[in-house]
Amino acid sequence: MIQVGQEAPQFTLYSTEKEPVSLSDYKGKTVLLLFFPLAFTGVCTTELCSVRDNIAFYNDTEAVVLGISVDSLFSLEKFKEEQKLNFPLLSDFNKEACEAYGCKYDDFVLGMKNVAKRSAFVIDAAGKVQYAEVLESAGDLPSFEKIQASISALN
């Protein structure tokens, strides 16, 4: 599992715009990675819409928000459009990023395997992890108060 102070694992994933996005693209910026299990599910929708509705905080602190799930980029594109999400969604269809960040359910629900655990990681401008929260229960939400405090402390 990723620890605070550790170098953030690098990745390149495709966005809903069908473009490769790498963590290294944001070197010099604060990044919030939000891994979520599956698009179009209740808690995931609540979580991402909460970020959408509070995007001013992230914009004001110049933090980049990246949502990541194992859904296909085509599913994520529809989800982003329907929910009017105002930050990038990335497809970790091959489960490489959630594996690298230690946030993957081996067994999820209904026989699904290798789904991203709901997790939040704040990465500073130097590429170090400053906040890490991996939730075992997909029904729980990350602590946005702690996430925002971590981001505020970096500015």
Characteristic key phrases:
155 residues; alpha+beta; Glutaredoxin; seven-stranded mixed β-sheet; 5 helices; 9 strands; 29% helix; globular
Quickly count the helices: 5
CATH topology-level name: Glutaredoxin
Number of DSSP-assigned strands: 9
How would the global form be characterised?
globular
Mean pLDDT: 94
CATH architectural arrangement: 3-Layer(aba) Sandwich
Q: Summarize the amount of helix as a percent range.
A: 25-40%
Please summarize the sheet with the most strands: 7 strands, mixed
Count of the domains: 1
What is the string of SSEs from the N terminus onward?
EEEHHEHEHEEEEH
Strand share of the residues?
A: 25-35%
Reading off the top of the CATH hierarchy, the class is best stated as: Alpha Beta
CATH superfamily: Glutaredoxin
**Order of strands, widest sheet:** 2-1-5-4-3-8-9
Specify the structural class. Answer: alpha+beta
The low-confidence parts are none
Report what the structure shows.
- The chain has one domain (12-154): Glutaredoxin (3-Layer(aba) Sandwich).
- It has 5 helices and 9 strands.
- With 155 residues, it is of the alpha+beta class.
- The protein has helices at 42-53, 55-60, 73-83, 96-100, 144-154; strands spanning 12-15, 20-22, 30-35, 63-69, 89-91, 104-107, 113-116, 119-123, 129-134.
- Strands 2-1-5-4-3-8-9 form a 7-stranded mixed beta sheet. A two-stranded antiparallel sheet has the order 6-7.
- It is globular, with a radius of gyration of 14 Å.
